[in-house]
Automatic annotation (TrEMBL):
<comment type="similarity">
    <text>Belongs to the PA-PLA1 family.</text>
</comment>
<dbReference type="GO" id="GO:0004620">
    <property type="term" value="F:phospholipase activity"/>
</dbReference>
<dbReference type="InterPro" id="IPR058055">
    <property type="entry name" value="PA-PLA1"/>
</dbReference>
<feature type="region of interest" description="Disordered">
    <location>
        <begin position="515"/>
        <end position="547"/>
    </location>
</feature>
<feature type="compositionally biased region" description="Basic and acidic residues">
    <location>
        <begin position="594"/>
        <end position="606"/>
    </location>
</feature>
<feature type="region of interest" description="Disordered">
    <location>
        <begin position="585"/>
        <end position="621"/>
    </location>
</feature>
<dbReference type="Pfam" id="PF02862">
    <property type="entry name" value="DDHD"/>
</dbReference>
<dbReference type="InterPro" id="IPR004177">
    <property type="entry name" value="DDHD_dom"/>
</dbReference>
<protein>
    <submittedName>
        <fullName>DDHD1 Phospholipase</fullName>
    </submittedName>
</protein>
<dbReference type="GO" id="GO:0046872">
    <property type="term" value="F:metal ion binding"/>
</dbReference>
<feature type="compositionally biased region" description="Low complexity">
    <location>
        <begin position="526"/>
        <end position="545"/>
    </location>
</feature>
<feature type="domain" description="DDHD">
    <location>
        <begin position="428"/>
        <end position="671"/>
    </location>
</feature>
<dbReference type="GO" id="GO:0005737">
    <property type="term" value="C:cytoplasm"/>
</dbReference>
């Protein structure tokens, strides 16, 4: 490219330049989402779209008169979207979206805002400009970039458009004037183009974008992908997880710019929209919902209905498979489009919300209610053997026992044969680095499956580190669906408060691993459910909902508090209803398979559902013997203002746009990347 660069990203333009066709780097492409204003693509994207546009035979001197060549879609916006140049539309790569995103080619721009003129007008002005001024020299004084008043200056050329006209006072003093007679139209045109003021003096136009597009203006390579998983309540609004993920991504971008801009790595968030592919009950549940409560029910349904669906043997497998397949599909698609990701040791984390946490956990650990059922049957057999019975009964039982044993042997041999020919692929195609739960009821599910606190402070007790390196449970203090996980590992953590998540704008916060455990005030501890009726159905005190564990005083208005406690007891009532089958089994504690066998002896001593906590020692709380290797429960701090207006309902969905959470997620993901690079640089030394 021997032609002089017109405007370098940093400086003014070279002098004595001749008017010629716009270079690909001077054109800027824009996209528009949700009918908002046009947003410019970054240089790297814009330049590649423009080159594809020219290959199609559009603009820039155009190709020959032959057939327009078919052009590959252009990958844009960190690889999340593609642009189809021929239809001037953009669409997401990893999820479906009904609304296409229009793109446009900007050649002429409005002074000050640098918003592009609509393409048709722009094309007309550009054509006129080249016809009249091609080959002419631009004025030397242009370095000044000062808009001189042109009121007294004669126009040397003019062009009439449908609602406006353009006057050239010189080669590079071009103004757009509104011809609208009524002020109303003038106003709308003005607003549409973002003029500085609605006056007759006209608006200055610039040819070519304020900044040249370069291939160096490029996003960093993605080194860590985060799958964002929702619960089941997505039937009504399939787009919600996509919007929520977009909120989380935008929030994380802000945090990245502020705190992690010096790192050449990048975290990408991908929505896992798996619910809409499932049929489940069609709309049977919908059709039996009374009309009047639909709005309210939709809100409650997203958590309560999720739980009902998930505990239904009919749908559980469909849900697990649906999510598992979508996770694997997204991972394969991402790797095929980013071949360097795996080579360079790219990492994967999962952020799940609500019931999504439970389904994700079950996929990772391979937990299955059938296993629980088999354990119950075995127990019944053992109990039978101990009871008195007639000779005939015993003979038949022995026969049955031997037959079952034989059946098991045959099954095992068959299994071995199969295993030797085909090795069973792992459920997920990737190892999970961090599993972040938000507003998660996972602890209740685990408690009702019989998991009881042990004696070691390792995460392995509930989620083996071979499956997932780090488990983090995030909740808002008033979220009615969230439960704590730490007391399921070590019982005395029910008296230790969750770690407080730092506010986004805290200067030099203490790193989380250096924060010392602090005790909840045991005298204020509310261990039982707020009303006696639901106490029998209450989960064990170690997992009582987060908001009952804290004494709020006036931080939430009394109405708010009542509704929260109400929601909690609804939750518990539901729990009692839905899990009565498992509830019974959890009253006879058994070790669940959690990858490693928990300490059997301790499990047998575990407290049953609904018993009060162990007596406090004289010092006011249990003597902690063991500490957790890593903290798991993290609680959002309540803002001084927001807390009074937080309701139990909004707190369950307010995780997506929280800067505090975005910073929290990135802190853990970047921390690992930092540690690894530090390690490898030490190794090389």
């Amino acid at each position: 490219s021997a032609l002089p660069e017109r405007r370098r990203p940093g400086g003014g333009r070279p002098r004595y330049e001749v008017v010629r066709e716009l270079g690909a780097e001077e054109v800027r492409w824009f996209y528009r989402e949700d009918r908002k204003t046009w947003k410019p693509f970054i240089g790297y994207d814009s330049l590649r779209i423009e080159l594809a546009f020219r290959a199609l035979g559009g603009g820039g001197g155009g190709g020959g008169a032959g057939e327009p060549a078919a052009v590959e879609p252009v990958c844009v916006r960190s690889g999340l979207y593609e642009v189809d140049v021929a239809s001037a539309e953009s669409y997401p790569v990893y999820w479906n979206q009904s609304e296409k995103i229009p793109v446009m080619r900007g050649q002429w721009f409005i002074d000050g805002t640098w918003q592009p003129l609509e393409e048709e007008e722009s094309n007309l002005i550009e054509q006129e400009h080249l016809n009249r001024f091609k080959g002419q020299q631009l004025q030397e004084s242009f370095d000044m970039e000062i808009s001189k008043p042109v009121d007294g200056k004669e126009a040397i050329h003019s062009l009439k458009l449908s609602r406006n006209h353009v006057d050239w006072h010189s080669v590079d003093e071009v103004y757009l004037y509104s011809d609208a007679t009524t002020s109303k139209i003038a106003r709308t045109v003005t607003q549409k183009l973002g003029f500085s003021k609605a006056s007759s003096s006209g608006t200055r136009l610039h040819r070519g974008y304020v900044e040249e597009a370069t291939l160096e203006d490029k996003p960093p390579q993605t080194s860590h992908i985060v799958f964002v998983v929702h619960g089941i309540g997505q039937k009504m609004d399939q787009g919600r997880i996509i919007k929520n993920t977009a909120m989380m991504r935008d929030t994380a971008r802000k945090v990245e710019e502020k705190y992690f801009s010096n790192l050449a790595t990048h975290v990408e968030f991908l929505p896992v929209e798996w619910r809409s592919k499932l049929t489940l009950d069609g709309d049977t549940v919908d059709s039996i919902t009374p009309d009047k409560v639909r709005g309210l029910r939709d809100m409650l349904n997203s958590s309560a209905m999720d739980i009902m669906y998930y505990t239904s043997p009919l749908y559980r497998d469909e849900l697990v498979k649906g999510l598992q397949q979508e996770l694997n599909r997204l991972y394969s698609l991402f790797c095929s489009r980013n071949p360097e990701f795996e080579e360079k040791g790219g990492k994967v984390s999962i952020v799940s919300h609500s019931l999504g946490c439970v389904i994700t956990y079950d996929i990772m650990t391979g937990w299955n209610p059938v296993r629980l059922y088999e354990q119950l049957l075995q127990k019944e057999e053992e109990e039978l053997e101990e009871s008195w019975m007639s000779y005939e009964e015993r003979r038949l039982l022995e026969e049955l026992y031997l037959t079952k044993q034989r059946l098991r042997e045959i099954e095992e041999r068959l299994h071995e044969l199969k295993a030797s020919t085909i090795s069973k692929p792992p459920v997920l195609k990737f190892k999970v680095e961090n599993f972040f739960c938000m507003g998660s009821p996972l602890a209740v599910f685990l408690a009702l499956r019989g998991i009881r606190p042990g004696t070691s402070g390792s995460q392995d007790h509930i989620l083996p580190r071979t499956i997932c390196n780090r488990l983090l449970n995030i909740f808002h203090p008033t979220d009615p669906v969230a439960y704590r996980l730490e007391p399921l590992i070590l019982k005395h953590y029910s008296n230790i408060s969750p770690v407080q998540i730092h506010w986004y704008n805290t200067a030099n916060p203490l790193p989380y691993e250096h924060m010392k455990p602090s005790f909840l005030n045991p005298s204020k501890e509310a261990t039982s459910a707020p009303d006696p009726e639901s106490a029998s159905a209450a989960p064990s005190p170690t997992t009582s909902p987060v908001m009952v564990r804290r004494h709020y005083g006036e931080s939430i208005t009394n109405i708010g508090k009542a509704s929260i406690l109400g929601a909690a007891s609804i939750g518990k009532g539901l729990g009692g209803m839905l899990f009565s089958r498992f509830g019974r089994s959890s009253a006879t504690p058994q070790t669940m398979e959690t990858g490693k066998d928990g300490p059997e002896g301790d499990e047998k001593k575990a407290t049953t559902v609904g018993t009060p906590p162990l007596p406090h020692s004289s010092s006011g709380f249990l003597e902690p013997t063991v500490e957790l290797e890593h903290r798991i429960d993290f609680e959002l701090r309540e803002g001084l203002v927001e807390s009074r207006y937080w309701s139990a309902v909004t707190s369950h969905t307010a995780y997506w746009s929280s800067l505090d959470i975005a910073l929290f997620l990135l802190t853990f993901m970047y921390k690992q990347d930092q540690e690894e690079t530090d390690k490898s640089s030490l190794d090389t030394m």
